Amino acid sequence: MERTQAQDVRLAPWSEGDFELLVRHNSPEMTAHLGGPETHEKLLDRHRRYLGLDDGRGGRMFRIAAGPDGASAGIVGFWETVHGGEDIWEAGWGVVPEFQGHGIAGTAVRLVVGEARREARHRHLHAFPSVDNPASNGVCRKAGFTLLGEEDMEYPKGHWMRCNDWRLDLTDTDGAGQQA
Fold this sequence. Notes:
single chain; alpha+beta; Aminopeptidase; 24% helix; disordered C terminus
């Protein structure tokens, strides 16, 4: 059997040295479904927030390491938020163009599901990809999330977008989120 990049995916805790990966994610191509590129100052703020999540209480961000050399393939993580009056984890991810199409995002999201489940803090993990982002919606489906419907969300502040609300029950250890 041929080995795929998705078989060699690991999560590395977000570190000070990962800022350049965040800069790579700030391209028009990578932010097309997120309101476009951010300013350098906003990226620095985001980087600081990601670093601040490493205590595990407010979530966690990771660099996606792929292949035998652990190349930086993208970003994935989860953080605390309130949605529909419920405290939840929200997940987000992005894979840089040269690593897209190899199942890396799906593998990384399934790994993050396991991390969120181990926190045992919230029952649900949600993801809110744009309805116009078939790749991220496919990742949700393959990772075992259930589509609850569409809604309008403000992200980033001042930019409204139509999103799908995908939810995964973290207490269901035999079903959703355990697919390979």
